[in-house]
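user: can you give me the structure for this one chain? tokens are fine.
assistant: on it. calling the predictor now.
[tool input]
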Amino acid sequence: MTAADEQHEQHVPPTTTRVVIAEDEALIRLDLKEMLEEEGYTVVGEAGDGAEAVKLATELRPDLVILDVKMPILDGLSAAEQIHEAHIAPTLMLTAFSQRELVDRARDAGAMAYIVKPFNKSDLVPAIEMAVSRYSEMRALEEEIADLSLRLDTRKLVDRAKSVLQTKFGLTEPAAFRWIQKTSMDRRMTMKAVAEAVIEEGAAQDAKKKAPAAPSEPPASEA
């Protein structure tokens, strides 16, 4: 599959994704469960506090954990941090606040995405896809590169390459990463090498566009 082919790919939520949800307000938790099940997700566990969420995530090993930020016993950010450190599953944060400080804290806790209440299915599904895809990308890079400094360097190159593919082929961010990952496997190259090739090709195309057109005939010599 070429990068151009990816732009025609149908992006649908995986119907087998197993989810644990943690929300201390029972009505919101029920609404969330109904939204997920209507979209084909399977809710395998429910919790009313962060400590129970960590316990369920550890026992059930779901594909995704959705956590409310404000919960008793253990808040959602602390729970997300524990789940992230144990490499259990991606986490998606629910919050009634949209302050930048909270976004930064969620990111530092290892959350892959977040959505602000009130939300509906049109908000929820893209956030889930983003969380799962970012987590898969992170794990793939970690498996390929053991050295932290090299991992960070590769991550930066892959991000730049994704941007090139998104700009030039109209791919989504997850589709761009999948193309890099598949090309890496098909050509038996590291993702870093593929990313470098994409960036180099993109720069070459940009330079070609900026180059002045050659004159159709030599300029007349001055008398």
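assistant: here you go. Confidence is low (pLDDT under 50) at residues 1-13, 218-223. The first strand starts at residue 18 and ends at 22.
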